[in-house]
Amino acid sequence: DALSALVRLRAAEHELNAATLVDRKRLAQLAQGTPITEVLSGWRYHVVGATLEAFLAGHTSLARGTGGTPVVTSIE
Fold first, then answer.
1. What angle, 0 to 180 degrees and rounded to 10, lies between the N-to-C axes of helices 2-13 and 24-31?
2. Which residue of 27, 34, 56, 64 sits 20 to 30 Å from the alpha carbon of 44, by its own alpha carbon?
3. pLDDT at residue number 69
4. Host domain of residue 58
């Protein structure tokens, strides 16, 4: 799904394992509106949390870029 794709994208950009950023259970909770402290604070927030917040608030979208690479774009 889109949230998982965002996590994988940010993990790849920072050369991290996606599960290190947020596991599927917490990602599902976040999608349902439950604030997840581990993702919405500290270093994880800077790596992926802000991106997830913006996406869930409708401020960004996920699209396919050149060669099918996922790209986060601003909606404003």
1. 130
2. 64
3. 81
4. 2-74
